[in-house]
């Protein structure tokens, strides 16, 4: 773990980058539903794509807390951009951990330089949160893997260069495969029109006799379940970090507004009910931050309760994000309902954090199971 001062210096650097190179385009990205290319370019300045990966593949070996701080600061100004970076990490993660030397060379080296967009393909049409109900199959034929199936709601779909795909390799076994956008048999469904994070493309990824070379299998063809289970324990705090960033950004915007706005001859921030609301929201954000950072520590150290704490953090942070964003719109009054102010966008963006990477209900089941087990 780094020293506290190192984390704070890193936070300041990411915040400067986010405010100068990402925030100016956030509203336009949302309004035009376009991929945040400016953010992708900005990531290169601090080599943020390289942050979570081991030095052996050219990464920076940044721990889970550093990754969370990074996503928190980006989401504070643009949730779409934080999602873009997070999913690139998620898509590249299995390749970095289990990819063959040939695949590491082919994928990770360009990716570390920030020139690669990636996706992870888990969810299916009929499955939702039931990842292990997946019907996408991969069969080994003549030295290649042939993949058939359809993945739903895939982030960065059609924009990504590489897709890490979970597929059934046996009756009760799974493998994970690296599929390139140019591979024959890979296609995409229509781009979805969404409530929030609208600059992040979402679509089905379709595999019709999609053939990939044997070296594109990641690790063991029967160990995909374990690979993905481990990955979810690691990524759930990152969703919590994104949610926390949205909450902080919404509160920052609300505080700025109530200090500038005057009603009945005085600053809105002077009204007692307004001050009480601000105090409550700030307290909940700080409580969420402490739980999130504790979960990062547990995941990093592979503590027995890491999975439970990750679910707690994802659950609590996403609920706080939704509450703070909604209250921040209210603190703006009628102005909060206008697209001229960022809280309107933040309220829409916050909702998805309660849904993806395991719904709030799934997180509650994980926590309850841990609490009630003998």
TrEMBL record:
Q: Which reaction does it catalyse?
A: 3-sulfinopropanoyl-CoA + H2O = propanoyl-CoA + sulfite + H(+)
**What name goes with this protein?**
3-sulfinopropanoyl-CoA desulfinase
All copies of the Acyl-CoA oxidase/dehydrogenase middle domain together span 120-210
- List residues of the Acyl-CoA dehydrogenase/oxidase N-terminal domain: 5-115
Cofactor(s) needed by this chain: FAD
Which top EC class is named for this enzyme in its record? hydrolase
In which family does this protein belong, per the annotation? Belongs to the acyl-CoA dehydrogenase family.
In terms of domain of life, where is this protein from?
Bacteria
List the keywords (alphabetical). FAD, Flavoprotein, Oxidoreductase
* Segments forming domain Acyl-CoA dehydrogenase/oxidase C-terminal: 223-372
According to the UniProt entry, its GO molecular function terms are: acyl-CoA dehydrogenase activity; flavin adenine dinucleotide binding
Keyword Flavoprotein part of the UniProt annotation: yes
Q: Which PANTHER family does UniProt cross-reference here?
A: ACYL-COA DEHYDROGENASE, ISOVALERYL-COA DEHYDROGENASE, MITOCHONDRIAL-RELATED
Q: Does the keyword ATP-binding apply?
A: no
Quote the EC number: 3.13.1.4
Pfam families in the cross-refs:
Acyl-CoA_dh_1, Acyl-CoA_dh_M, Acyl-CoA_dh_N
């Amino acid at each position: 773990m780094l020293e506290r001062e190192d984390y704070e210096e890193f936070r300041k650097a990411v915040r400067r980058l986010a405010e100068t190179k990402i925030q100016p385009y956030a509203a336009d990205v949302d309004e035009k539903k376009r991929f945040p290319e400016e953010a992708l370019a900005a990531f290169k300045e601090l080599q943020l794509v390289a942050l979570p990966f081991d030095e052996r593949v050219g990464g920076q070996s940044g721990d889970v807390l550093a990754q969370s701080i990074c996503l928190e600061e980006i989401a504070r100004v643009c949730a779409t951009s934080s999602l873009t970076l997070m999913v690139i990490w998620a898509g590249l993660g299995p390749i970095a951990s289990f990819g063959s030397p040939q695949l590491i060379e082919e994928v990770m080296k360009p990716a570390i330089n920030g020139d690669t967009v990636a996706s992870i393909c888990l969810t299916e049409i009929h499955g939702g949160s039931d990842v292990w109900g997946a019907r996408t199959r991969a069969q080994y034929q003549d030295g290649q893997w042939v993949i058939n199936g359809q993945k739903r709601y895939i982030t960065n779909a059609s924009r990504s260069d590489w897709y890490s795909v979970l597929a059934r390799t046996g009756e009760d076994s799974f493998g994970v495969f690296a599929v390139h956008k140019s591979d024959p048999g890979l296609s995409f469904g229509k781009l979805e029109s969404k409530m929030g994070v609208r600059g992040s493309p979402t679509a089905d990824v379709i595999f019709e006799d999609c053939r990939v070379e044997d070296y594109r299998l990641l690790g063991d063809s029967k160990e995909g379940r374990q690979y993905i289970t481990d990955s979810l324990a690691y990524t759930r705090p990152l969703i919590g970090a994104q949610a926390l960033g949205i909450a902080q950004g919404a509160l920052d915007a609300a505080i700025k507004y109530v200090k500038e706005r005057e009603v009945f001859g005085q600053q809105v921030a002077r009204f007692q009910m307004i001050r009480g609301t601000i105090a409550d929201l700030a307290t909940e954000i700080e409580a969420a931050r402490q739980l999130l950072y504790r979960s990062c520590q547990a995941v990093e150290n592979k503590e027995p309760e890491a999975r439970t704490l990750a679910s707690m953090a994802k659950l609590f942070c996403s609920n706080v994000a939704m509450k703070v964003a909604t209250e921040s719109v209210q603190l703006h009054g009628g102005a909060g309902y206008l697209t001229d102010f960022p809280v309107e966008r933040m309220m829409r963006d916050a909702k998805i954090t309660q849904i993806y990477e395991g719904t709030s209900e799934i997180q509650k089941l994980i926590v309850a199971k841990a609490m009630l087990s003998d």
